[in-house]
Amino acid sequence: MFLLALALTRYLREPSHQDRKVSAWLWDIHAYGVDTPQHQNAVLAFQAMGEDAVPTLVRHLHGPTAIRSRVTAWASHWSVTQTLFPNTDALSAKAAYALFVLGPNARDAIPDLEIAAASGKPPLNWNARAALVRLGHEPLSALLKDLSLPSNSPSWRDAVDTVAVLGPEARAATPHLIRASLTGPVAQVAGLPPVGTAPANRVPASLSTALGNTFSLANNALSRIAPDPAEAIPVYLPYLQHSNSMVRVYALVGLGRFSNHVALAQITPSLHDTNASVRSIALSQIKAITPPEQQAAAARAVHPLLNDPVLSVRVQAISLIGNFGTEADIPALNAISPPDSSAAAAENSTIRNTLRADATGPAGSPPATSKVDLQHDYFTSPRLQAIQSKAAQSQSNAVRLAIHKIQIRAERIAPP
User: Fold this and answer.
1) 314-to-88, 311, 354, 399 alpha-carbon distances in Å
2) Single pTM value for the model
3) Secondary structure letter of residue 14 according to DSSP
């Protein structure tokens, strides 16, 4: 009863905003900084309360004592007492994030934040360290130093996630994150050539998994940082020539973040990569980054892939020409070698799975009756049936579909 009375007294003395106490607002804070409406409102509430909220947040920052833990376990079954005896482990990370939000107003909490930053308990330690950096108590350069460590190091992981909390305040970490995301695990494998050497096509499965995990962590941090394209793009470009095919794939994927700033000429060399996955990602990125005025040039650039030995890449190239090309591209489509009988069924399946939902025509094209046909089953539309009856039997369904799209667009833009 004494502990219950003490907790109630503390709660009643807490500062409030819009008739809600600090502890109540703290539940709406997302410990990982996910930008939900509730989190946004809580951030605004703590900014409004300022340094008045610090004593309560510091109290929540510390883990429970043994007695308090037992009372908390008992109280968890009763909704009335959950606010008085909350899950303090979860609330500690939220309190650290709230102190990060308060910035200079949380200066009195520095000793407590140092303890939390050294706790080794994520996300509590990430949020506390981010608060210390924002307060100027820890330099950002210390984080950058940790980002230079091997990507399987706990210190590297903590630094990446702390940078994610800091967001745009940590833009100086952009080159470190890009390099780590692309080559962190590769650097730990002896014998791999450096950047710019001849491509290799095989990647050990364990290395591929490690590279993917590292890329995901660093990519999340980059998303939160929102790096300047002018700074980030030049860091990515040399890795398009890396010896490891997975590095080249992830470099292309990373460049996709800056689709409005990447030039077509920066991607097209990857169309000739020896690795099919790289060629496929390059086609996807060209489709994403190409503005309307360069679509015809993009269609011409992928002509060499119309006879690619890999079916999925060939179909992507045919589809891109169907989306971007003009009637001048139709002879190249007609010249494609017919698939052998064993590949025909697989190609038809690939077409149905990957091309049926493709949009047709340039962005902003006016509605047209023919577009309705294209949004349904291409293989039963009257228009396509007519084209198929006139087309040479050696053409694949993918080619007929691409020609169909080009001709529909030509009808739209033809003079009356």
Assistant:
1) 56, 5, 12, 10
2) 0.69
3) S
